[in-house]
TrEMBL record:
Residues 10-224 form the GmrSD restriction endonucleases N-terminal domain. InterPro entries: GmrSD_C, GmrSD_N. Residues 407-543 form the GmrSD restriction endonucleases C-terminal domain. Coiled coil: none annotated. PANTHER family: DUF262 DOMAIN-CONTAINING PROTEIN, SLL5132 PROTEIN. This is DUF262 domain-containing protein.
Length: 674
């Protein structure tokens, strides 16, 4: 590369044209930067000996010269500074013409703004990117006083025109002086790359200076620098610009989730470098086409109102938004896009969203932490890749896997709903609690549409107790208020929360009777409202919740108004009985391991058959399993399962080995169990 000191006069003289490539960001300097540059110009007369004032650098690389002799340069850094200097010269020209100083105006136009004798496409010395190009052309060509379109370019022109008019104060000589100051006494370092330099390596190293670019900006620059200039405009218009318009500032987030749609972890701070690594061997048009395919899907994922063709999907996405499970977006993006392009049935997406809602809301209600959810979703996206064309198998795998990922049992959900606060006044907990109550209401009254916008969460026993409430609650009013206030049994929905406030239950009961909500008409049948009633109602609603969001791993069942372990979970295995053999075991995981070991000796293809049909249970990479149990030197079993789940897998393995269930059983501490 070659570095030289240059002045605006030198840069904007001779037959040159500077192009800001389409992939560069639009003109973005504002009032702060304009004021700084203008202050630099105003201070020039105070410098001794006509010294120059350095204002920065510009980096460019030459493109092919045309037969007309116009030398073209693509600016890869410093475009904001170059554009601002150019706008200042346009403003000075127009002020000079308004003063009647046509000689200066013509000199600026012919020598520094336009290539006077060039063809139309090469006439302007500076061509910004497509967003700003028309506006700057209009300014450069327009007669004085013509109003230009709104935007940063027009605002910069108005700023400098006003400052220049004020400084010149109607004096022609001061106009000449200002032209000399700007053209000759501002200085820059002009860095021109040669054929041995990689423009994009230079661009990356300079990105830390000036206005910081987003990962999406860097990706755009990287892609468009890999293609010929004559292809850039068409590919930009066809692929990149529509994505930019659809997603705006969310474009980086889109690329981030796009990169993880097949699984794996991409740190948000590493989106650009991960994208480069993933796409460096692929043709740019192919990459742009694929991004452009996924972008409308992602826009609908972020804003379900855009999904106008599939109302059920729109409703399910809105519900998922309220669960806050954004870590699932990459996998949803992959499946949703296949649905939009008729490569998968809509039902698979709807079923997937139901399972993800189940996973998120049960964890919320059981107050499980969210730690590990991100890794779980990345693993889930990776392990289901091969199942995209098999909806049933994909959904089975999703259910089975999520049931092993910090997923609460029915008992944990039940206990939390009855004894722990569900409500919180702010944030995601409030949104999710409202979603749970709305869903209960819809299930109670499916023929009526619940309009959530006008409803708020109401505490039946109020947050501030009055003397009447103390009396109604009894001797333990303070304790009961502290322990039960925010639990499920004390919550409902109303459209008149402020009116009910701390009113006695006798007053609230009358209002509940008038409500159109079934949750409230049920409340109107209660005579009193105390701790016993709150607990009873909490248990009733908890039962409905467990029916609405049933366990993905139903090793626990609801019995007799409470949650109790199933029989298989409560007994301890002692031995596996298989075709006359007795194989001692101590745990249900050992039941599976010894069963598989014995069956493998009878059926050599057993493991390949099992993996093909039940891919979530066996793997040769233990790190991909939640709780890996070694079967032999090559295979590991997913030990994170219920006793019933282990038994079901053994029965399936028997079937794959060609045996019947009568040839296998488990001896337990309470006798034999098939």
């Amino acid at each position: 590369m070659r570095a030289d000191y240059a002045t605006p006069k030198g840069l904007f003289s001779n037959d040159r044209q500077y192009l800001v490539p389409l992939f560069q960001r639009s003109y973005a300097w504002g009032l702060k930067e304009w004021k700084t540059l203008w202050q630099d110009v105003r201070l020039l007369p105070e410098l001794d000996d006509n010294r120059q004032h350095y204002i920065g650098a510009v980096v460019m690389y030459p493109t092919a010269a045309t037969p007309t002799g116009v030398n073209k340069y693509a600016i890869i850094d410093g475009q904001q500074r170059m554009t601002t200097l150019f706008i200042m010269l346009v403003a000075l020209r127009d002020v000079a013409r308004q003063l009647g100083h046509g000689h200066l105006a013509d000199r600026l136009t012919d020598n520094h703004l336009l290539n006077k004798y060039a063809v139309l496409s090469e006439r302007h010395k500076l061509l910004p990117n497509q967003t700003d190009r028309a506006g700057l052309r209009h300014l450069t060509d327009a007669a004085p006083g013509v109003v230009v379109n709104q935007g940063r370019v027009a605002d910069a022109y108005a700023f400098f025109q006003a400052r220049i008019s004020e400084w010149i104060a109607g004096q022609v000589a001061r106009a000449d002086e200002l032209a000399r100051l700007v053209l000759d006494r501002l200085s820059l370092v002009s860095i021109t790359l040669d054929d041995n330099d990689d423009p994009y390596v230079v661009f990356e190293s300079l990105n830390a200076k000036g206005l910081r670019l987003t990962a999406a900006d860097l990706i755009r620059n990287y892609l468009f620098m890999r293609i010929q200039p004559d292809e850039q405009e068409q590919l930009n218009d066809q692929y990149w610009q529509p994505m930019q318009e659809q997603l705006g500032e969310r474009l980086t987030q889109f690329v981030w989730h796009y990169l993880m749609r097949h699984g794996g972890n991409v740190p948000k701070s590493d989106v650009y470098f991960s994208f480069k690594k993933a796409t460096e061997r692929r043709p740019v048009p192919e990459i742009l086409q694929e991004l452009n395919r996924y972008a409308p899907t992602y826009a609908r994922l972020l804003d379900p109102a855009l999904e106008t063709l599939r109302p059920a999907v729109r409703a399910a996405l809105r519900r998922l938004h309220r669960t806050g499970l954004t870590v699932a977006y990459p996998m949803i993006l992959r499946i949703y896009d296949k649905v939009r392009h008729d490569q998968a049935p809509e039902s698979v997406l709807l079923d997937l969203l139901v399972v993800l809602e189940n996973y998120s809301l049960r964890g919320f209600m059981a107050q499980r932490g969210t730690g590990g959810s991100n890794k779980s979703m990345q693993t889930l996206a990776a392990r289901t890749n091969a199942l995209d064309g098999q909806p049933t198998e994909l959904l089975d795998d999703v259910r089975r896997y999520l049931a092993t990922q910090n997923y609460p049992s029915d008992k944990e959900v039940w206990d939390a709903l009855l004894n722990k606060p569900l409500y919180h006044h702010a944030g995601e907990r409030n949104v999710r609690t409202k979603l749970v109550l709305e869903t209960l209401e819809t299930d109670l009254n499916p023929n009526e549409t619940v309009t959530p916008d006008g409803l708020t969460i109401e505490h039946i026993m109020p947050q501030a107790l009055t003397p009447v409430w103390h009396s109604d609650l009894g001797a333990e009013s303070v304790r009961d208020h502290q322990t039960l206030l925010h639990t499920l049994g004390n919550l409902t929905l109303t459209g008149y929360n402020s009116e009910l406030s701390n009113a006695p239950f006798a007053v609230k009961r009358v209002e509940f009777a008038k409500s159109n909500l079934s949750l409230n008409t049920e409340l109107s049948t209660e005579v009193i409202w105390d701790a016993a009633v709150i607990r009873r109602r909490g248990a009733q609603l908890a039962e409905r919740i467990l029916l609405r969001w049933p366990s993905l791993a139903p090793e626990l069942t609801v019995e007799g108004g409470g949650v109790m372990p199933s029989r298989a979970q409560s007994v301890r295995p002692k031995a596996v009985l298989l075709q006359g053999q007795r194989l001692p075991v101590r745990t249900w995981i050992e039941v599976v391991v010894v069963t598989l070991q014995a069956l493998a000796t009878m059926q050599p293809t057993l493991f390949s058959n099992l993996v093909r049909n039940r891919p979530t249970y066996l793997n040769q990479q233990p790190e991909l399993l939640r709780s890996a149990a070694k079967v032999n030197a090559s295979w590991y079993y997913e030990g994170h399962n219920s006793a019933d789940g282990h038994r079901r897998f053994c029965r399936f393995a028997l079937e794959q080995a060609g045996l019947t269930e009568t040839e296998w059983s488990v001896e337990t501490a309470e006798g034999e169990a098939g």
